[in-house]
Amino acid sequence: MKSTRYGMLAVIILALAAAASGGAADTVATAVYAKIGNGYKRAMAKDGSFKPEYYALSNGGLIRGTMNDITVDRVSYRDVAMLVIPLLDQQSYYYAKTKEQATLLLVLNWGTTLAPNGVHKEMNVAAARAIMDTLTVAEGDANAARVATYESEDIGKNSAAGLGRSPQWANNEEMAAHHTAVAVESQFLQLFNDDRVRDELNQHNARVLGYLDELADSNDIRRWAGGGDRYNDLLADVEESRYYIVISAYDFKELAKTNKKKLLWQTRVSVRSPGNTFDDSVAAMMRSAAKYFGQNSGKLVRGEETKGTVELGELKYLGEAKEVNTPAPKEEK
Question: How far apart are CA 145 and CA 284, in angstroms?
């Protein structure tokens, strides 16, 4: 019996998959979006199952503009790979033993999105409101100063002296009002900049999480015509930090030949970060995503997935195991 590293790893992977599929009844709310492109279509066998496809696996790390936290750092590439491989097996995607066998390159990305700085914006709004109040008082003082100046010109110098105010007092009040107006303008520019940054970050997060199409579809007259709060609900998701996993499938042959990435399919899954940890949610996220590997979800699919319990320990030798061979599909007559 031939001992192979692949066979040994397969035994451990299957054990992890069994652990991930059972366990506690604790659930997590997931959101999945999957899309195929560039003419990709899975070939079907006579029995209605998918014909086997073979892939190489790669670590894509963090997507630019996202971050990690301590719970993300606790999960290694090996951990993620060992969770996704048996789920890919269930969809007739098999790990290639040689580069010649591989037709797909699967790239794994995971991390957490950045939430817009809402507190910073609220502070700016409060500051702008305070300055507006100051401006109102300053403008009132400036108007009073102008009236006093006009009276001094019409009635005579003694009139202004009688009021206890000089023309210089009027100039000082007008200067104070001017400076306050400049401060208000600066504050509103800051608010505008906050909104611009917030919109850019929201768009980036929506793209990473797979919310972009759904947001665009729900951003229409229905928002103001009794169509519900779907747009606002989606936007609230995007503006909240979320853990994500993205599985991207590229044409391996095309990449090896031309060094150009041709994206064939992509599956994105996420859960909200507040109240969850990545290491506790990664198995549930992968199971939700696996249902749509190599397929179109058609829309953003939101649902509940059991977390289960997964022990990610050191690689251990469990003895000899037969090399895993995928049976070739029968010839179609």
Answer: 70
Q: Where are the domains of the chain?
A: 5-114+259-306, 118-197
What is the H or E stretch that residue 9 is in? helix 5-21
**Which pairing describes strands 93-95 and 53-61: parallel, antiparallel, or unpaired?**
parallel
CA–chain centroid gap for 302, Å, is 15
Q: By the 8 A CB rule, do 57 and 196 touch?
A: no
d(CA 12, CA 3): 14
The confidence score (pLDDT) of residue 179 equals 58
Residue range 201-225, pLDDT digits in tens: 888 999 999 999 998 888 777 666 6
The Cα–Cα gap between 82 and 14 comes to: 9
The reported pTM is: 0.66
> DSSP letters of 18-39?
HHHHSS---EEEEEEEEEE-TT
